[in-house]
Specification:
A alpha+beta, B mainly alpha, C mainly alpha, A: alpha+beta, Rossmann fold, OB fold (Dihydrolipoamide Acetyltransferase, E2P), 5-stranded antiparallel β-sheet, C: mainly alpha, MetI-like fold, 77% helix
């Protein structure tokens, strides 16, 4: 049994006439790694800034450990933030940056130096303690920013797109560092990002936001496999979304007419569907089978290859059916190595009824 | 943790309007300039306007609201002579300075490298921090009847020319004051023109002078006019050039203010002159700036 | 014929002439300050320090120099303080009538000095504050604050706006963030602004002349000598004033560009 550590209750944030966050209800548990995702302007950063006290909610209540914190000034909260710009103090050395929070709390010089060094060692940057900030690399600055935020041993760490300025392989390294750190410390991380791969790689739960509203909260795989709305389905992963009408339903088995023809879905948990009802279904790009020849049972659609793209070991294909419907398909490179793919090649595409997910209304 | 709060109860946040609450921190930074400028900038100017309606009796100023000073000053020919003479001189100075500055600014903006341009602008800033009085005194010595200029011209078998106490002398003085500023403003506005505009004009077969006249100057119009406005304001308000190099006959409005204040103790009459100057400058600046920002045809 | 070449050359020649005109009075003044003739002209007389000796042995000069230093240091401090407050307010806050606020702060340099001088004289007499050294200080602060504001505002522009929030986030109150983050960041600009405003104050004569009463500053002393006869002492004083101002300006420039490049 764990008690919710951070609670947003009916929180609204308006800037003038624009609503940045609309009626937000969210609770975060102690020790959780929560990622808040969305495109720019969706309210994710505002949410984080409200938690840090840099914006105050227009309505509603934010609680930390059961206590209302709406009125607390930023300096009175134990919610350090790792900034997107890092916001390291350029006129202070590395160790002075890390000591800053302790100095503001009136800790003795010797003690704060000792505690700062502990963190510099933990972040593996102790050798740079006396350097100036502009003498560090991007990854080293990142570690200074983390050490500076964590040195006061806060219960919660807020991170605002901390990896967005790093190059790709460094991002993967820092993801590892962050994940391990969070597990070791056992404190709550609230991590704002627009990057799906960062969120899915590290978070216990992700929050998808759009236009100030929460679209879905759930474990990464849940959000990925069972998007709660068309927005989430489009935002997360590479999904194929089809609209159609229900033709026949029977205990979780649904048959529907779509642009792809008649589609069967099994294990549908959406509220009872009626015949003739409009419906949206999702088939994830990695849920298709492809073959150069028609399969035995004949349940396959012929498509032409429109484009192909290699992303590491994954091949991303864009296919087109004879009636002009586009399909996004992803396969491991080795799975399709024997297929001779070019633009224009005809492939037979099939999928299992389990792979068809019906979007909730 | 004990609250470190001194000011309002709510967290005061960037760009958050703190209505109906006194934010001591914000006020600490906002108030000094308001207090100081109201007390020692707006105050003096408003008081000066009021003073133009005061009376002077037995060499003492009395607060009143009479048109006497205004009638006295505006009914005299020498006031209007001084007025038009000052406007004439300032206009001449503006035209001469702008015309002389333009080729230099044009060269600095288009014909030299960026580092030469930076150095040139740095050099042009230096005169702002040297005594204008001392520079005027130098010109006085140089332009005098037996001064350096006439001595050098003498070697060439020319002159001597009378340069001090002439309009020429005044203009040299005004140039000393305004030339560097006008060159800097013109250079900056020319350097900001989109180069492709000029290249397009030349591609279309426009000659050099044609390009300058119909593309470069209109594109840099705002900056050129602002330079001219500053030149006019500085020349219009300067007393040193027309006094020491121009001979102060006829007097300009600033000289009139000094004479009336220093010699006659007639502060209210000086205030009339100052108010007339202020109104004139406002009209000139407003007209020029609305032309500067008017949309190009 | 290569027309481009001709144009380029004539522009260079013209630029040299322009700079010659601008620097002639400054150079002449320095040269004549070492020239023995009472009326300076060419050919030059002999080399001499006598004008400097005369000036340095003149108690009135030292009195004026002390007044000038006092005025420029005090108005430099006040103007830098007011300029910082205004620049910080402009950097950090949005509020109604901000346009009017900024206009109020930046307007003084657009009003002719002679008008300000008369207004100051009348107003300061009215409130019983004229004819004192601090009358000049008050007036010079009005004149100099906009320059300080400009220099400091430029520096704050280079500051990551998150820096101050980061300090609050780490437990600093607004006052502590000011002391530990904003001021250290703005320090080079504060020093530059202080030097620049001192230089402006050190050269100002119109307003000083009106409000100073018997407390002459150096430029006012020069003005009064000028009203008499040609006196080469002015060249000596002028050279002294020139190097004082230039030192201040160069220090300001060096500090500002050095620290700006650093960050």
């Amino acid at each position: 049994m764990s008690q919710a550590q951070i609670v947003f209750e009916d929180v609204v944030k308006r800037f003038g006439d624009t609503v940045a966050v609309e009626k937000m209800n969210l609770s975060v548990e102690q020790g959780e790694f929560l990622a808040i995702m969305g495109s720019s302007g969706c309210g994710k950063t505002t949410t984080l800034r409200m938690l840090a006290g840099l914006e105050s909610p227009s309505e509603g209540e934010i609680r930390l450990n059961g206590e209302r914190i709406n009125e607390l000034k930023p300096s009175e909260r134990e919610t350090p933030l790792v900034w997107q710009s890092l916001a390291l103090f350029p006129f202070l050395s590395v160790i002075e940056n890390v000591e800053f929070g302790l100095r503001m709390r009136g800790i003795e010089p010797a003690e704060r130096k000792r505690r700062a060094m502990v963190w510099l060692e933990r972040m593996e940057i102790a050798e740079f303690a006396e350097r100036q900030i502009d003498q560090l690399s991007g990854g080293q600055k990142q570690r200074v920013a983390l050490a500076r935020a964590l040195v006061t041993e806060p219960p919660v760490l807020l991170l605002d797109e901390p990896l967005s300025a790093l190059d790709a392989n460094l991002v993967v390294r820092m993801q590892g560092v962050l994940s391990r750190l969070q597990k070791d410390l056992g404190i709550t991380f609230v991590y704002v990002t627009h990057s799906q791969s960062e969120a899915f790689a590290m978070a216990d739960r992700v929050v998808i936001m759009s236009q100030g509203k929460i679209e879905q909260v759930g474990a990464p795989l849940e959000v990925y496999r069972q998007p709660a709305s068309r927005f989430v389905a489009e935002f997360v992963g590479s999904n194929n979304i089809f609209t159609g009408k229900v033709a026949q339903t029977n205990a979780g088995q649904v048959q529907m007419d779509t642009a792809l023809g008649v589609i069967h879905a099994s294990g549908v948990q959406t509220a009872p569907l009626e015949n003739g009802e409009d419906i949206e279904v999702v088939i994830s790009a990695d849920n298709f089978e492809i073959d150069a020849v028609p399969p035995e049972n004949g349940e396959a659609i012929p498509c032409n290859v429109v484009s192909e793209e290699f992303i590491g070991t994954v091949v991303s294909l864009l296919l087109e059916t004879e009636s002009g419907v586009e399909l996004k398909i992803q396969k491991q490179q080795r799975e399709i190595a024997e297929l001779d793919l070019h633009i224009g090649t005809t492939l037979w595409v099939s999928w299992s009824p389990d792979a068809v997910y019906v979007l909730p209304k | 943790m004990p609250p470190l709060v001194i000011d309002s109860q709510s967290p005061s946040i960037r760009k958050l309007s703190v209505k109906n609450k006194i934010d001591l921190y914000a006020l600490t930074w906002r108030m000094p300039v308001i207090v100081w400028q109201l007390l020692f900038f707006v105050g003096p100017l408003l008081f000066m306007i009021a003073m133009s309606f005061f009376l002077v009796k037995n060499y003492r100023m009395q607060e009143a609201f009479e048109m006497k000073n205004w009638i006295k000053m505006t009914s005299r020919d020498y006031f209007w002579d001084a007025y038009w003479y000052t406007i004439g001189l300032a206009t001449l100075s503006t035209v001469v300075t702008s015309l002389l500055a333009f080729p230099a600014a044009f060269g600095l903006a288009f014909k030299v490298s960026a580092s030469v341009r930076r150095w040139a602008i740095f050099l042009l800033i230096i005169p702002f921090f040297t005594s204008y009085l001392v520079r005027t005194f130098s010109w006085y010595v140089i332009l005098a009847e037996s001064g350096v200029a006439n001595a050098l011209l003498g070697y060439l078998g020319l002159g001597p020319y009378k340069m001090l106490n002439t309009v020429f002398g005044s203009i040299v003085g005004y140039l000393t004051l305004t030339f560097p500023l006008v060159i800097i403003l013109q250079t900056l506005s020319l350097a900001n023109i989109d180069r492709s505009l000029l290249e397009a004009a030349q591609n279309l077969g426009a000659g050099r002078l044609r390009t300058i006249w119909s593309v470069t100057i209109p594109a840099a119009k705002t900056g050129l006019i602002i330079g001219a406005v500053f030149c006019f304001i500085l020349s219009f308000g300067d007393f040193v050039a027309p006094y020491y190099l121009g001979g102060s006959k006829p007097p300009t409005l600033p000289i009139l203010i000094i004479d009336t204040t220093k010699a006659g103790q007639q502060w209210p009459r000086a205030a009339v002159v100052a108010v007339v100057m202020m109104v004139t400058l406002m009209v000139v600046a407003y007209t020029a700036i609305s032309i500067a920002y008017r949309k190009r045809r | 014929m290569n027309a481009d070449r001709v144009i380029r050359w004539s522009i260079w020649v013209y630029l040299v002439l322009v700079f010659a005109f601008v620097f002639t009075p400054i150079v002449t003044s320095v040269i004549f300050s070492f020239n023995s003739d009472r009326f300076p002209t060419v050919p030059l007389g002999s080399f001499t320090f006598k004008w400097y000796e005369t000036v340095l042995n003149d108690p009135d000069f030292w009195k004026a120099a002390r007044t000038s230093m006092l005025v420029c240091v005090c108005s430099g401090v006040l103007a830098t303080f007011i300029g910082f407050c205004t620049a910080y307010t402009d950097f950090r806050y949005q509020f109604r009538f901000k346009g009017a606020y900024i206009a109020l702060a930046l307007l003084p340099p657009t009003i002719p000095l002679i008008i300000l001088a008369l207004g100051m004289l009348a107003w300061l007499s009215k409130i019983g504050a004229s004819g004192q050294v601090w009358s000049i200080i008050i007036a010079h602060t009005v004149l100099c604050a906009p320059f300080a504001m400009g220099v400091i505002r430029l520096r704050l522009q280079q500051m990551d706006p998150d820096l101050e929030s980061a300090a609050w986030n780490l437990g600093a109150s607004e006052w502590a963030a000011m002391k530990n983050v904003v001021l250290p960041f703005a320090m080079p600009a504060l020093i530059s602004a202080f030097c620049l405003t001192m230089a402006v104050s050190f050269d100002e004569f119109t307003v000083s002349w009106f409000v100073s009463g018997l407390n002459k500053t150096i430029p006012v002393a020069i003005l009064e000598v000028l009203q008499g006869t040609v006196d080469p002492q002015i060249n000596a004083i002028g050279t002294f004033v020139f190097f004082t101002s230039m030192t201040l300006v160069v220090i300001a420039q060096l500090i500002f560009s050095y620290r700006s490049n650093q960050n």
